[in-house]
């Protein structure tokens, strides 16, 4: 019996140690779970995503606030896009315009495309006070593209020598608001502009009217137009337009049917000003059409890369597209006729993957900067 009593004392110590081990294990598991929720530890699935080419941030939650018109929201936040984004840890949250922006979030990125001075002031003030949030894009830079005169000036200033082509803009004339419409024919003749002329509203905003285009076959019919507007010489381009989408450093090119060539014979027989629809819509896609290779061939890649890089830097924008045409009968003479901020990316092939990768790259870049500072 005394022997049994000598053998029993270690047992309670073992139970206490096991109890401590169990508590330690539970605490460890809770800590691990907490770290998983915070994105500090990645799961096997996340590792598979990383091996598939996504960034180390795919396991973390990236919150993207958006302030978009209802039309832009429908075209951009398509189910296929938002589902892919969620799978990569990106969550889109609508900005409540009835609440102060600093009280919302926290956001990693804000996407916006709203017009009006009030919103301009709100987002610019937020951007200045919250440098940790990436705002796409700075409102002052966007404003630059709201004027068709200033938007193309950056193209004029480019020097793209040794880039397998020449890029310019059509000759253009600005008719300011104070000009009497009856004086437009005189202004055109004084400037030596050649007919036909494309007429566009000077100011670009979210209204359909700002995207109305007219083709004038004779000078006198120009007095029917309402200033302010921009007149551009029409350049024959084989009825094909290149829509060049820019998303950060990614470039995608699609072809759209455009206005057909206008011969001198036709010009001599037709008079008047004709309104024509937006030719760059998705319904006018020419990517699958059987076209003359001399017309359909994409602009040289080195030229596009240099052009996109220069305009990103000069405009200070990440999200825009360029409408470009090739002068008919040439191989390497191109004209930029329009630049648009935050265009209809829903019409761009594979936009879901391009855009999610872009958003993740912004977060990755921001994280790397923190590590180096």
From TrEMBL:
Residues that bind Mg(2+) 1: 323, 338
Positions of the Inositol-tetrakisphosphate 1-kinase N-terminal domain: 63-142
Residues reported to bind 1D-myo-inositol 1,3,4-trisphosphate: 72, 113, 211, 243, 340, 344
Details of cofactor binding: Binds 2 magnesium ions per subunit.
UniProt keyword annotations, A-Z: ATP-binding, Kinase, Magnesium, Metal-binding, Nucleotide-binding, Transferase
GO-annotated molecular function: ATP binding; inositol-1,3,4-trisphosphate 5-kinase activity; inositol-1,3,4-trisphosphate 6-kinase activity; inositol-3,4,5,6-tetrakisphosphate 1-kinase activity; magnesium ion binding
EC number per UniProt: 2.7.1.134
Binding, Mg(2+) 2: 338, 340
Reaction catalysis annotation: 1D-myo-inositol 3,4,5,6-tetrakisphosphate + ATP = 1D-myo-inositol 1,3,4,5,6-pentakisphosphate + ADP + H(+)
Cofactor or coenzyme needed: Mg(2+)
GO cellular component: cytoplasm
Domain called Inositol 1,3,4-trisphosphate 5/6-kinase ATP-grasp: residue spans: 164-360
Top-tier EC class: transferase
Function: Kinase that can phosphorylate various inositol polyphosphate such as Ins(3,4,5,6)P4 or Ins(1,3,4)P3.
Assembly behavior: Monomer.
Family label: Belongs to the ITPK1 family.
Full protein name: Inositol-tetrakisphosphate 1-kinase
Organism: Sphenostylis stenocarpa
